[in-house]
Amino acid sequence: MMDAICLGELLIDFVCPVVDVSLAEAPRFAKAPGGAPANVAVGLARHGLRVGFIGKVGADPFGDFLERTLQAAGVDTAYLQRSPTARTTLAFVATRSDGRKDITFYRNPGADQQLSPGDLDWDYLRRARLFHFGSVSLSHSPSREATLEAARQAREAGCLVSYDPNWRPTLWDDPQAQEVIWQAVPLAHVVKLAEEEWEFLTGTPDFAAGSRLLREQGPSLVVITRGEQGSAFDAGEGVVEVPGFAVEVVDPLGAGDGFVAALLYRLLQEPDPFQVPANSLREILRFANAAGALTTQRVGVIPALPTTAEVERFLATCSE
Known about the structure:
This protein is an alpha/beta fold. It has helices at residues 36-46, 61-72, 122-126, 143-156, 177-183, 195-202, 207-215, 255-268, 278-295, 301-304, 308-316; strands spanning 4-7, 11-15, 30-34, 51-58, 75-76, 80-83, 90-95, 101-106, 130-134, 160-164, 190-194, 221-225, 231-234, 239-242. The strands form 2 sheets. Strands 1, 4, 5, 6, 9, 10, 11, 12, 13 and 14 form a 10-stranded mixed β-sheet that branches. A 4-stranded mixed β-sheet has the order 3-2-7-8. Helix 2 links the parallel strand 4 (51-58) and strand 5 (75-76).
């Protein structure tokens, strides 16, 4: 039995190590394993959970590299599929010091978007305590149908379902992108968005108003991340702000994934992860803020994802 299963894109990030330049201005790139759900899977494994990953990569050297990376991190890859026709997706990334990203994807098609409902093992999925997914796999068929059906099956099986509607406009050629991303909201118990995605999805810059719209669709917990400014949550009793941590950023890429992994790990430690008291949520988000801050301290997402002990040591040095 798995504690958690993550589904979605697993790809190669070619990251510009120079911050605050555009992709056109980037002088060079470094290869790194990536894909938000895969990053979260590794992050959960770093916190000691038994984690599986469902996705598809190419039958190529990049796919070999990614599979070995997940296995080395302790993630189960039994349901990582290989496409015989499509290559592993690539993404070229330039980051800004405020956490925003300039991303161009190379997938025409990419192997990740060829994951289909027929690739899924429903018994494997239903045995997990947590199911996590994002919106990149919703951008094209058949991965869209696979993602939505997996989320439905997980929710019906009693899993805690987490959704990160990570908006990547260059991936979408569907004029109904916003509508498609919203289709997944009722399937989730937890929805987390970054501040730069908030207004696109909810139609309002106001967190209280936007979170109310999201919760009306079914999620019980809505979270927004704001970089070093911290995060906030709404679990139905009003908005609670949780301050962040000011650190010298080495590489901001993946801070949100480190945050999500820590958030979900701590939710699973609760007696009832579906209904967590506000005072506990405040401490959980402080822990997640610290994990996000630590993820910015090394180059590359997966190498930087912290363990529970590392987060706790960091928090011990910080005053409330």
